[in-house]
Design a protein that fits this description.
Length: 440
């Protein structure tokens, strides 16, 4: 056993006494050296890999930080969460770093989250990237380009990309989830590249994204790993085994450990409800004991569904891509005979539905105005004899529609968790309506 391996073993053994949750999560993973690694530590596929060359030059305190940081990342679920469509791995890692920074290495103040001065968390690559962007935003007149002046996107980054006057550390105002940070940072990377940076800064950003891509190379969805993390967190709650993990860290870990939600489960239930709605009784030969009182069942495994797509100004093309990807995976099956699409903002954009295709060009759909759900509801209820159910894809920002019928079968798919949290309560009060959201 090398000297570095002994040092790592001593650190983990110490966790057994002082940090039972960290030890329990780490114990499910193999800690192995990877000489080809160009970053200190990474995790995924039930292992934690480290670079012997980089860690050997570090103090025990620094080695423990990198190991602990990776276990925090695992507890937050990032290496085992569902990946977005065509993910940018470097941006996934940056978003993960920012979430770890906000939840584990910041103090919460009335005006936001500010990094602790004596913490290595300020040196996380994703945090350094945002600090550089904060400086850039403070020096440029149009950091996202002229077309974004006065936009909500620019205001978000101006609000969250700032340096605390007293500590000199990054200050974050909004408390966002991992998937929300991913979408924001993806937008930032794209728009800053379009807006233009000087050669040195552009090259530095590309180098960072390449290094951060290595961080998340092993990431893939793993339900079994998610369940193990959830079990360890439940055990920590029951046994008060949080160790040195403070209240804010506990809150973030418990919030991130809610793996019970899965939009695919909601789609599956919707599909099952369509099949159930087409159940018919069949007359069989009489049963010797019960006669004709026990009828048989036959399911018509064909159904038509209607999808109403919000094309108002708040829906991005990227969100629509995720939506079509989800729908294709679940409804291009023999159970569904036909999928029709209508598009709406303040009114219907097409009075005659179009058939769902693998690729839909949103540029050809004239919309981008406000949002009114009533026209989509009215169309569905006026054509109830033609459709077994309705799916509405939206961000939920609009007036509550009025229903004519109470036996509707309607699933709302909201484009983000934030949209779901803001709107799912009023949606679920509508008879026959259920709601879910896409994680990205």
């Amino acid at each position: 056993m090398s000297n570095l391996e002994k040092r790592i073993k001593n650190i983990v053994s110490h966790w057994f006494i002082t940090e039972p949750l960290l030890f329990g999560v780490q114990a499910a993973h193999s800690i192995i050296p990877n000489p080809n690694l160009n970053i200190p530590v990474r995790s995924g596929k039930m292992r934690i890999e480290y670079s012997p060359k980089l860690l050997e030059a570090m103090s025990d305190q620094q080695v423990e930080f990198y190991l602990k940081n990776e276990v925090f990342r695992i507890m937050l679920g990032h290496p085992y969460a569902r990946l977005p469509l065509n993910p940018r791995y470097g941006i996934l890692s940056i978003a993960s770093d920012v979430c770890i920074y906000a939840s584990c290495y910041c103090r919460r103040t009335p005006s936001g989250f500010v990094g602790l001065s004596d913490s290595y968390g300020n040196d996380l690559p994703g945090v350094l990237y945002l600090k550089n962007q904060a400086v850039r935003f403070g020096t440029l007149t149009h950091p996202l380009g002229i077309k974004w002046e006065g936009s909500e996107e620019l205001k978000f980054f101006q609000r969250n990309l700032s340096i605390d006057h007293y500590s000199g550390n990054l200050k974050i105002v909004d408390d966002l989830s991992f998937e929300q940070w991913y979408r924001r940072i993806l937008f930032l990377v794209k728009e800053t590249a379009i807006a233009g940076e000087d050669a040195g800064k552009a090259e530095s950003s590309e180098s960072l994204l390449e290094a951060e891509s290595e961080e998340s190379e092993l990431w893939e969805e793993n339900q079994e790993a998610q369940q193990h993390i959830k079990d360890q967190i439940k055990k920590a709650e029951a046994d008060a085994g949080w160790g040195g993990i403070g209240g804010e860290q506990q809150r973030a870990i418990k919030d991130s450990a809610d793996f019970s939600f899965d939009y695919r489960r909601a789609l599956t239930h919707f599909r099952q409800s369509i099949v159930t709605a087409n159940r018919t009784l069949t007359r069989m030969r009489p049963n010797r004991r019960y006669g004709f009182s026990a009828m048989g069942s036959r399911y018509e495994r064909k159904a038509n569904i209607l999808i109403a797509v919000d094309v108002s100004g708040s829906i991005t093309d990227e969100s629509f891509e995720h939506f079509t990807h989800a729908i294709k995976n679940f409804f291009f099956l023999k159970i569904i005979e036909k999928i029709d699409l209508i598009f709406f903002d303040v009114n219907l954009k097409n009075t005659k539905p179009v058939q769902f295709r693998k690729k839909i060009d949103l540029d050809k759909i004239k919309g981008r105005g406000g949002t009114n759900f009533q026209p989509a509801f009215d169309f569905f209820e006026d054509h109830k004899s033609e459709y077994s159910g309705l799916i509405i894809f939206t961000d939920g920002e609009g007036n509550i529609p009025v229903q004519k019928y109470s036996n509707n079968n309607i699933l709302w798919i909201l484009d983000s968790r934030l949209a779901y949290e803001k709107n799912h309560q009023w949606i679920n009060t509508l008879a026959g309506n259920k709601s879910t959201y896409l994680p990205f």
